[in-house]
Amino acid sequence: MKRVFISGMAPGNGGVPKFLEYLDDNNFSLITPKQSSKFYQKIVNRLIFLSKIMFCPRDRIYVIIHHQTIPLLAILKLLLINKLEYFAIDNSYFCISSYNYNSEIDVINPCRNCLKKTQPDKSCNVFPSKRKKFIEVLLLKLIRKYFSKSKSKIYTLSNTSTNLVKQSLPACGLVKTIGFTTNELVQLVNEPINKNKLNKAIVFHGHPIPGKGYDYMLKLAAELLDFEFIFPSEGIDYDNVRYIKCSWDNGLKDLVKKASYVAVPSLWDNTPEAASLKTMIMEIPLLFVSSEFSFENENLTHHGIALTGHVADDVILIRNGINKSNYSKSRDFCNKYLNESQQRLFDLK
């Protein structure tokens, strides 16, 4: 039976869009909305996207990616009529705020209230969907019920993610590690390693939000005044903190190449993020936060420095680690991961 991947995101820039772009370029069947910068065209594109889902035939398997981005009516139709599989592109597949992190509960540890029992904290907000909180909770319960069946299938990006899904939905028939890849990652593997580094530069690679560790990096910057902290976003420079509005293709890649460290300190149970994989392929030490179900927890020695969440301790780790570690094996590790991911992914085609 033919598989069709469905996501409310469109192929383009960003982690999931880049993954969708890879699928599209390799002739996987996709149902996604078209991108547009015009308001009225966005509405038209969403309506077309909705209509395609509403008329999906029953003789195919539909693989859902980020159900939070799919219209409510479309999701309900799929759940009631079609045969579904779920691609847990990250570990926040059942989290109403998409990153299983809540600063109201703990500064450093992931929150798993939604992942294991669909009971979000009162302080949590719905993201990225615009649905009301009670509607999102009901929808999550319906999706959990659908995939708590012996014949259901969920695909993940890493072994730790597979373990978390199995704990979350023990009755699910199959939870299988597939992996993650993008065109950028495949191309980067063949590029030479840059040996010309900036002096004590830490480049933050990700969205400047608390769940991605942005606030924590600012705390470290206040203590590591002899390091330059660079953030690829808008902001006002001060002391040793510099903001450079850029993306991977227009400046960020060059900054990462020369960095002493690249910071991807996600405070949730993150799967292999493109930012982390890029850094490892380029053999640059990574600053990350390891949790029980994060990708980094699988292979700590291939990544860089595991931050503890205690500023004083992490300052010492960063100062001691800059000249004492060898990350040359990370490229080989990533190359193997990407090759295996591509093979498993094409088995789903």
Describe this structure in words.
The structure is a single chain. With 349 residues, this protein is of the alpha/beta class. It folds into two domains: 3-183 and 339-347, 3-Layer(aba) Sandwich (Rossmann fold); 184-338, Glycogen Phosphorylase B (Rossmann fold, 3-Layer(aba) Sandwich), CATH 3.40.50. It has twelve helices and twelve strands. The chain has helices at 15-25, 39-54, 72-81, 113-117, 133-147, 159-168, 183-189, 214-223, 252-258, 274-281, 311-321, 329-347, and strands at residues 3-7, 30-31, 61-65, 83-88, 153-156, 174-177, 201-204, 228-231, 241-243, 261-263, 286-289, 304-307. The strands form two sheets. The protein has a six-stranded parallel beta sheet with strand order 2-1-3-4-5-6, sandwiched between helices. A six-stranded parallel beta sheet has the order 9-8-7-10-11-12, sandwiched between helices. Helix 10 (274-281) links the parallel strand 10 and strand 11. Helix 7 (183-189) packs parallel to helix 10 (274-281). It starts with a strand and ends with a helix.
Quick recap of the structure?
The chain has helices at 15-25, 39-54, 72-81, 113-117, 133-147, 159-168, 183-189, 214-223, 252-258, 274-281, 311-321, 329-347, and strands at 3-7, 30-31, 61-65, 83-88, 153-156, 174-177, 201-204, 228-231, 241-243, 261-263, 286-289, 304-307.
Q: Give average pLDDT, whole number.
A: 91
Helix content: 25-40%
**Helix-strand makeup class:** alpha/beta
Oligomer: single chain
Number of beta strands: 12
**Helical segment count:** 12
The number of distinct structural domains comes to 2
As for the CATH topology of the largest domain, it is Rossmann fold
Main sheet summary: 6 strands, parallel
The CATH architecture of the largest domain would be: 3-Layer(aba) Sandwich
User: What percent strand?
Assistant: 5-15%
Cα-based radius of gyration, to the nearest Å: 20 Å
- Which runs of at least 5 residues are low in confidence (pLDDT < 50)? none
How far do the termini sit from each other?
A: 10 Å
The helix/strand order is: EHEHEHEHHEHEHEHEEHEHEEHH
